[in-house]
Amino acid sequence: MSGGGRAFRLALIVFAAALVVRLVYLLEFSRSVFFDVPILDAAWHAGWAERIAHGHWLEGAPYFRAPLYTWFLAALDVVAGSGSWVPRLAQGVLGSLAASFTALTTERLRPGSGLAAGLVVALYGPLVFSTGELLHEALLVPLLAAWLWITVFAHGERDDPDAGSLPWFGSGLLLGLSAITRPSALVLAPLLVGLALLPSRRTRFVLPILAGLALPIAPVTVINYVTSGDLVPIASQGGINFYAGNNGAADGRHVVIPELADLGGWEDFEPRVTAIAEKTAGRPLGPAGVSDWWAARGWSWIRHHPGQAAGLWLSKVGALLSGYEVPNNRDILAARSDSLLLALLVGRAGAFFWPWGLLLPLAVFGVIAASDRRRFLVPVAAAVVYGASLIPYFVCDRFRLPVVLFLAVPAGAGLLALPTLVKATWATRRPPLVGAGVALLLTLATWGMDTRMNAAESWHRLGEALYNAGRSVAALDAFNEAVRLRPDDESVRLGRSWAIVAAADSLARTGRAAEAASLDSLAGVELARAAKRLPDSWQAQYGYGHWLAVHGKGAEAVPWLERAAGAQPSRAEVHKELGFAYEAAGRWREAGIALSHAVSLGEETAEVHLSLGLATLNGGRADLAENNWRRALELDPNHVRSLYNLGLLEARRGHVGAAADLWRRALRVDPGNALIQGQLAALPSGGAAATPH
């Protein structure tokens, strides 16, 4: 069989194995609530992609997060339709391609070891887990796998006088696509240029690399500039991410931002980050300015606390090398309960965690045992450079996945070298065994991390997912368990408050009035507590204000809803609720302003136009009131109160027939309405005295 045929067969075998593994995992995972209800970053990506797919092409611009992964999800939505399976199946195919590219790369560097390296990627638990998560890494890892393959090919051919520039252009292009998926991929650009230049300084490959790199990045930069006037090459999240990993409360493994400790929800993250920077700076800031402000804050802390910063950075190095998978979006150790396959591929035995605890020693073993270690220059250098790029920020499981991809190459070679090394002399065996032993010890160290599964956080995330899925009673059970384990966490208690409200509504609909009333009373107590303890959380303020308004306490609800509306100038439902509260308090002018703003934000319902009509009527504008009530009927032709109010206006004008027609329409919808029956009966004599309501 020819070399090309062997390579194709190898790639096909690895692809098939990886795809089967991923399909089995997805079938198991599909039974979990998290399959249909993504949370945190995954929910952000899903919502962003849905808006793009519905025609909002520049949604998110200027970009706070790199946009390619979201464009990928939106494209799938447009081409194949929405649903939970479509993106996961696409990601399963891409993840399997990543395994194939890794096999081909390794086979080129160390013939005979490609299959082993490909299977390392195919069976690596966190990579399999990422197939089901709507996160950047599902696209980033395949792009970097293709980048590594073409870069190794180009590097191997660079001394050939007939070598073309196309592979180098392709390498730059793939790296550019990786960068607009996750900007940290740009740290590999200097490595790529260095590989093209050294050792012979062949500058003719540099321009194709830069052209390929710029091709996908330039449009993103242009979109950012046109929509903001700021020069943001890809995304503006870098500054706040740097600060999250460099402040007095940072642990180097999680997003810890003291200024956002009372953040109500992740959808508020970007607005709050901007608001804090602008308030402190005392002037409006563009996206680049906001990012620079947070980055400067992080550097200031490092300068003023060099010893603490050094210790923090050392702990990040430890987290990078440790076998423990630091959770970021979902805890992979908790996710093992969703899949028997994942429970086999990821786990722990005492201080030993697999699969990283196997991968790193095998990779070190493979490099040291190689007869020519220079052949692994590209993947090892990429692993070191990319891993080092995480240290200034924070280290977690999914951020480490590109490093896994690069280390799989020498790890595959290490697996192949194991049998031959058994027969070698001790002098030959000692260096790779010592190196692998040191690597194993590094994976066993936890560097002060709490490696126990965070049960409270897992219950919290499950509660959020169940709540978003509409399973309020089950969500409340999950939140109750989270509160039991972490009673002083106000964000958990706030989530439980919303679940209590939803559960009370659910019980009321099923006729369990006494239980519903008890839960509703508890909801009021919990929401009041949250509103007072989380004064900067719009969700806490809105939640309590909404509860008060629903219970007929509109005047009491106003200050809470005003705070929520002030923090959320673009959230339509908050301004609608504030308008209703103003209406209940008889503050018609403010009601009109709040409801008009809600309509401008897209909250255009019959109920909103009904109340807006009442507000304008009380302001002396019967013409605007009529317009709003007629608009309410366009939205809901059977809206009884709008029919009633329009009938009153017609009766006052002496248009008896028009008034009668409107009231008869209303009675066809609500035949037992005594008020309208009385108006219709009194109509021949001019109608009974009444006011719109």
Q: What is the strand and helix layout of this fold?
A:
Layout: H1 3-29, H2 33-36, H3 40-53, H4 68-80, H5 85-109, H6 114-123, H7 125-130, H8 137-157, H9 166-179, H10 188-197, H11 206-228, H12 238-244, H13 269-281, H14 287-304, H15 306-321, H16 332-335, H17 340-345, E1 347-349, E2 352-354, H18 356-369, H19 377-390, H20 401-422, H21 426-444, H22 455-468, H23 472-485, H24 490-509, H25 513-533, H26 538-550, H27 554-567, H28 572-584, H29 588-600, H30 606-618, H31 622-635, H32 640-652, H33 656-669, H34 674-682
Antiparallel strand pairs: 1-2
Helix pairs in contact: 1-5, 1-6, 3-4, 5-6, 5-8, 5-20, 6-20, 8-9, 8-20, 9-10, 9-11, 12-14, 13-14, 14-15, 18-20, 18-21, 19-20, 22-23, 22-24, 23-24, 24-25, 25-26, 26-27, 26-28, 27-28, 28-29, 28-30, 29-30, 30-31, 31-32, 32-33, 33-34
What features would you describe in this structure?
The protein is mainly alpha-helical and about 700 residues long. The chain has a domain at about 605-693: Tetratricopeptide repeat domain (Serine Threonine Protein Phosphatase 5, Tetratricopeptide repeat, Alpha Horseshoe), CATH 1.25.40. The chain is built from 34 helices and 2 strands. It has helices at about 5-30, 35, 40-55, 70-80, 85-110, 115-125, 125-130, 135-155, 165-180, 190-195, 205-230, 240-245, 270-280, 285-305, 305-320, 330-335, 340-345, 355-370, 375-390, 400-420, 425-445, 455-470, 470-485, 490-510, 515-535, 540-550, 555-565, 570-585, 590-600, 605-620, 620-635, 640-650, 655-670, 675-680; strands at about 345-350, 350-355. Strands 1-2 form a two-stranded antiparallel sheet. Helix 27 packs antiparallel against helix 28. The radius of gyration is 31 Å and the shape is elongated. The N and C termini lie far apart (about 85 Å).
